[in-house]
Each structure stands twice: as structure tokens, then as C-alpha cells.
Amino acid sequence: MQTINAEGGCLCGEIRFRVNGPLLGSAACHCRDCQHVCGGAPAYVVVVSKSSLNITKGQPASYANTAESGAQRTRQFCGTCGSPLFATDTSFPDVVSIKVGSLDDPSLFKSEAQFWTGSAPPWHLIDPNVPQFPKGPES
């Protein structure tokens, strides 16, 4: 299993974090909630165990809602600049999704799957070489 050892933070520098541990997955999520959070694009994430993430500076704000899957989804972001950072989901209680754009080196990302492609707008280009799923992952 690949390991991720990286640092990241928000746009204004108020929040900083370190992630060090097994990379459980990487994906693009095209659900409507992610489109709202990302301004129209999918959310690109790396997935790690919660114990692999250490917030080293600041305290993120959070927002929780019921996702289309029916799970409770909590998104964390910088309360100052609004940068999306992390998300957790009650269907997968031991993991956290880290937004790739918050990594200092986003080139570490390579998508292994694309979820909720059934929600993607027709103008969004979906890479045909990456496995696609019309809904989300099964818990």
C-alpha cells in the first residue's frame, strides 16, 4: 500500500496540517454537494485514516449536512479564507478525505476512481481511463 507523507493548509495560512500514513484511495467526486463546495468542479480527494491526519496550526470551521447517500457528511474549511480542507462521512467513520488543492504539492494526486458521475454536468470532462461510478462508494 502506498504511503502519503505531505503537508498542506488553507489559502491564508491560518490552518496547517500534516498527513503521514497509508493512502487508502484517491478520487474525484462529482456529487452536487462537492460541486457547490468546489464552485462547479468535482472535489479531488485523497483518503487516509483519521489517525494519519494531524492539524498543526489553527482550527477549521465545519459544516454538516445529509448527503444524497443518506450519510451525515461533515466538511471542514478555513473560517477565514473559506478554503475547503477535509471531509468525513458517517458511512466511513475511520477515514478522512483531504482536498487535494489544500496539499502543498497537489501533484501527488492521481485519481483512482470517479464517483457520482451521474451528477456531473454535461460540460464536465470525465477521464475515460479512470473507473467511473454513477453513485458513491459502498460502505
From TrEMBL:
The keyword Zinc belongs to this UniProt entry's keyword annotation: yes
Instruction: Name the domain of life this protein comes from.
Output: Bacteria
UniProtKB keywords? Lyase, Metal-binding, Zinc
An annotated Gene Ontology molecular function:
carbon-sulfur lyase activity
Outline the extent of the CENP-V/GFA domain: 6-124
The keyword Zinc is assigned to this record: yes
Q: Which family, according to UniProt?
A: Belongs to the Gfa family.
PANTHER family from the UniProt entry: CENP-V_GFA DOMAIN-CONTAINING PROTEIN-RELATED (PTHR33337:SF40), GFA DOMAIN-CONTAINING PROTEIN (PTHR33337)
Official protein name in the record = CENP-V/GFA domain-containing protein
